[in-house]
Amino acid sequence: xxxxxxxxxxxxxxxxxxxxxxxxxxxxxxxxxxxxxxxxxxxxxxxxxxxxxxxxxxxxxxxxxxxxxxxxxxxxxxxxxxxxxxxxxxxxxxxxxxxxxxxxxxxxxxxxxxxxxxxxxxxxxxxxxxxxxxxxxxxxxxxxxxxxxxxxxxxxxxxxxxxxxxxxxxxxxxxxxxxxxxxxxxxxxxxxxxxxxxxxxxxxxxxxxxxxxxxxxxxxxxxxxxxxxxxxxxxxxxxxxxxxxxxxxxxxxxxxxxxxxxxxxxxxxxxxxxxxxxxxxxxxxxxxxxxxxxxxxxxxxxxxxxxxxxxxxxxxxxxxxxxxxxxxxxxxxxxxxxxxxxxxxxxxxxxxxxxxxxxxxxxxxxxxxxxxxxxxxxxxxxxxxxxxxxxxxxxxxxxxxxxxxxxxxxxxxxxxxxxxxxxxxxxxxxxxxxxxxxxxxxxxxxxxxxxxxxxxxxxxxxxxxxxxxxxxxxxxxxxxxxxxxxxxxxxxxxxxxxxxxxxxxxxxxxxxxxxxxxxxxxxxxxxxxxxxxxxxxxxxxxxxxxxxxxxxxxxxxxxxxxxxxxxxxxxxxxxxxxxxxxxxxxxxxxxxxxxxxxxxxxxxxxxxxxxxxxxxxxxxxxxxxxxxxxxxxxxxxxxxxxxxxxxxxxxxxxxxxxxxxxxxxxxxxxxxxxxxxxxxxxxxxxxxxxxxxxxxxxxxxxxxxxxxxxxxxxxxxxxxxxxxxxxxxxxxxxxxxxxxxxxxxxxxxxxxxxxxxxxxxxxxxxxxxxxxxxxxxxxxxxxxxxxxxxxxxxxxxxxxxxxxxxxxxxxxxxxxxxxxxxxxxxxxxxxxxxxxxxxxxxxxxxxxxxx
Length: 851
Description:
Largest sheet: 7 strands, parallel
Distance between the termini: 86 Å
Strand order of the largest sheet: 3-4-2-5-10-1-11
Shape: globular
Structural class: alpha/beta
Oligomer: single chain
Strand content: 5-15%
Number of helices: 37
């Protein structure tokens, strides 16, 4: 008998993710059919164009998100033959996801731990596209990934933000040699009072959280020193992260605090990481996507197609939570006594904090001595020591997602500390810069995720204690609650209403909830009523942040490529998108500061005085935006004042005036340029002629679209030096020849302008018939005089160059005087072949008289 394998393992083709489910034979008795909302999402996905690169799917807790994500993964594996990886926040959750995949009837392999330890048969099955790989984020986001998929499904996408950023983050803790080497490298760039506090070993703990951003120019100047420090002192993760940022460390941001130094780009350069960037599609799964561009910033992507939440799902809940806010009506001492007593009564609790420091403080003051505590490391490996015990507390730092403790596994969650500072960059943005509105979506997401760790199905229930004044204050804000699921809004409002009642014991209410007694059932019915009256609303700044996010990503891609000029221009575009409102002022100030720093670097490199003035203007704008902030931008462009050349003409002066009228700042500029592009692209008479007039003004001519009997369709003049007159026939049939009437019309425009508009006779003039026609009637040639025939595409090409000049010059214009701006535009006209002689060269190619 032959021992060779002769079978074919290729799975049968599937038409859609929904059809795939019908072909499965799940062993999980709870998965016999798709819920309506799951089917709706799968159909919505199938309706997307094939070339969509980044797709986001939102399904609240308990809505069957894992099944949807794994069906999409398996569909792409079977339909496209792709290597597909399904990423989870940690190895423990990856193992759970692999179990679910097996229960769904999917062919999946678990690949976690070191690549060298992978089961070779499983790894080969993934490489050949014969099995779905289920793994963790770090398997893809590391300096030498073995998992390089063609399709990526990123489960609990918000939880992946840390793993993504870590790849380009060097973090040094106080006491490590690397910390002291890095602080020493930038010490002279820090404010002297702050440096004194860093060196104070006995500094007040309340001051240790202060974060300083080292001036980007100082980092650029010390890039080699920082590289050497990392090379000599880095250990473990920092070795690989240091290699990832080595070439661009001068363009990373460096944050310093008493206890930590962090060096990283503001936005991770994932476009440079092949294991992520080369995937043909990336699917992001989350219970709370948000609308302010946080996922785009976290993953460094510019365009994310968000599939709509299935209709009606907002009406569903995912279990019941009873929120307790002891800080709403009690002092700190009473709060921790209340929390400790609650843990005693519940027996078990999950404690989530933004940092180890917050967790240590909580453990020392609120965990009962009689209750065993399990720390992050142990919980990461195995939760059975907690789930199988009658009593215990799990203490986790910055782990708001990726923990499932359903039903009797745990009935009490404690959220302690505002989750706004899970790393130094966030601490700087929130506390030092005061850009709280920018982080609001991220904070809200973590609260929602954390509060849902113990309610994993519709019948589940758990109490949530919110500890700390800052966290309580955040949750109490109406705009924060309105952005949440209606069920969660109702639960928080009910919790706040009851927590403010000093005459009622929170512990008694907690007992009633845990017992699910009659009093609680009445309260539950009231919460349902509140939820039915609530509706979800996005914050007013969400649109501005969402519009800015793609530009922020493009900006950091440019700086990572070393294109400082483009990065500076994009940074200014970011500030335009962020608007002028006070809520986003801190974030706008930061972006102006980055732009000023990069422009100064550029000026030093080019030696161009105009770049220097650009830097000075940006510095002034940054200082103006930061005037009301605690933080102060520090950048010092130093060079001689700019001096304007005399090499410009009146056309350039008029073009400079046109640019200022279009708007040096704000979004109106680009809207107007887009309108001109659209007008010039039209063949219809009116829009094309309007675009022709606008183009003349961009080029610095006095441009008109005269009214009257038989006027030219467009007239441009440069004083007494040049007239350009146009008869536009863009809507005429191109197969017909140029007629006598058309030739005479165009030839009469010179006399019409003199008699009707009274313009002084010019040194040179040109009358042009703008038409697609290729042939000229001989009779028309005989009367054509000096009229030229010009294809409309020539005008459009001139328009493209003129628009490019305006877009290129605009970012620098705010730094220039009128004379300097005219000089710059004159130089650009020269380089883009838009001087008068250049225009005549391209327009006067074919005389009508020549046939």
